[in-house]
Amino acid sequence: MKFSLIMCTANRVNEVRRFFEFISKQTYNNFEIVLVDQNKDDRLQGITEEYGKLINLIYIKSDQVGLSKNRNIGLKYKTGDIIAFPDDDCVYPRHTLERVHEAFVNNKNVDSITIQFTKLIGEGHEQLEINDFNTITNVKRVNKYNCIRRTCSITIFVSKKVHENIGGFDEKLGLGETLIPAGEDYEYALGILKNGFNMFYIPQIAVLHPVLKLNLLDKNEYDRNKKRIESTSKVIMYIANYHKLGLDFKIVRISDRILGLLFRAIMLDLKRCNLIFSDLRSMFKYWYIRI
User: Which of 40, 88, 93, 150 would be a feasible disulfide site paired with 9, CB 3.0-4.6 Å?
Assistant: First the structure.
């Protein structure tokens, strides 16, 4: 069973090198990396030449703008049985591909899985090994209600069968020159479920990714986060309408936010209350959105 890892990159060098360094040490090595380079210069030439000797690397130079569009370009070159979409600044602990391979091989009815998103703190190897468990337990089935909480693009692994049926990412969504600069991963995951395929969440397998600590006292940072939340709410309402997820999906989503608002109010956390309120307001604003 071969993995195709579709990675799009722009404006990063050290992070790409770090990913290649750790992917080259995976305990399961039947994989290819399809690297879609959006940089206008040749800053990655040294890295691709160095690691192209160590791993199966397919290098694509792209002049297109947009994460979804470039992932779809990368998908045209994949040859694997299992497809994933690592970011250029994430890291796979050394057993990640082995564990994912075991999950598919030992469960023939599995169409796709999603794994744990874990904070990457610092550069130490000890942090990168924290999820190298020997057993897989506590597997949860993903449904339309928990899908957004359980998935993001870098945690999803799909079978070739799934990809051949649902295709790639919605190019109207995602980072870049798009109508909504977010949510392409949620649309992709919900599209898997909507088309009758299953997905399972396995928390013992992980991908690590940098997470910035939110400073709500910084007005600029607060405003950026508020804008991001509103954009996410907008895309979730679009996805709900596009995939006809039903009124129940929206009610569950709103109820969850109301409970969060009440909890933060009890804790007198007014900053987060305002963020949750912005989330709710955005959901109602875009209740009927179609693009």
Answer: 88
- Please, are residues 70 and 8 in contact by the beta-carbon 8 Å criterion? yes
State how far the Cα of 257 lies from the Cα of 262, in Å rounded to an integer. 9
pLDDT at 124 over 80: no
Distance CA 69, CA 157 (A): 19
Residues in Cβ contact with 15 at an 8 Å cutoff, skipping those fewer than 6 apart: 88, 89
Q: Taking the domains of the chain in order of start, what are their residue ranges?
A: 3-209, 219-285
- Domain 3-209: homologous superfamily in CATH: Spore Coat Polysaccharide Biosynthesis Protein SpsA; Chain A (3.90.550.10)
> For 127-179, how does the pLDDT look when each residue is reduced to its tens digit (9 = 90+)?
444 444 445 567 899 999 999 999 999 999 999 999 999 999 999 999 998 99
- Is the distance from CB of 262 to CB of 254 less than 8 angstroms? no
Computed on alpha carbons and rounded to an integer, the radius of gyration of the chain in Å comes to 19
Alpha-carbon dihedral angle through residues 118, 121, 125, 127, given to the nearest 10 degrees: -50
- pTM over cut 0.85: yes
C-beta of residue 208 within 8 angstroms of C-beta of residue 128 = yes
